[in-house]
UniProtKB/TrEMBL annotation:
Membrane-related topology note: Single-pass membrane protein
PANTHER family: OS07G0415500 PROTEIN, RECEPTOR-LIKE SERINE_THREONINE-PROTEIN KINASE
Segments forming domain Apple: 86-150
Protein name according to UniProt: non-specific serine/threonine protein kinase
Compartment list: Membrane
Uppermost EC category: transferase
Gene Ontology BP term (one): recognition of pollen
């Protein structure tokens, strides 16, 4: 009989293969789909950012203007510190480099500038923010809805 193995979709969303080490009767990870934990969609929950350091592991943090929902479990993510309404008289946009919020797009606007994206987002009541990607030969922007970012 060959080695005993099991394939498990773990709590963090990563698919792992475990092999039984018969001499000690313990299951050990022999393979995992994603070796970089921050690449697992939503691992830190909505409205948060995941940062990975090989020495300290994964670290989650809330976006500016958000607070953690559950201090014992990051999978709950973060929530707004104050409500955003459609009467946007005092709204600002914050640049957060090297962050991607994929999967929550409401509209793609090709060949857009930061200023154009601000104006477009302000027109839409359900727009929570935008992201500009500079992909050659043309850049583009994605506008995000009220769906939590994560």
């Amino acid at each position: 009989m060959g080695p005993r193995r099991r394939l498990t979709l773990d709590y963090d969303g990563n698919l792992r293969m475990y092999s039984l080490v018969e001499t000690i009767g313990k299951w050990e990870v022999s393979w995992q789909h994603e070796s970089k934990p921050c690449r697992i969609h939503g691992v830190c929950g909505p409205n948060s950012v995941c940062k990975y350091d090989p020495y300290n592991g994964r670290t989650c943090s809330c976006l500016p203007g958000f607070k953690i929902k559950n201090h014992t479990d990051w999978s709950y993510g973060c929530e707004l510190e104050s409500k955003i309404n459609c009467n946007r008289t005092r709204v600002g946009f914050l640049r957060i480099p090297h962050v991607d919020f994929w999967g929550y797009d409401i509209r793609y606007v090709p060949n857009s500038t930061f200023s154009q994206c601000q104006k477009e987002c302000m027109k839409l009541c359900n727009c929570k923010g935008f992201m500009i990607m500079f992909v050659e030969p043309r850049g583009g922007a994605r506008l995000f809805s009220e769906i939590p970012l994560g």
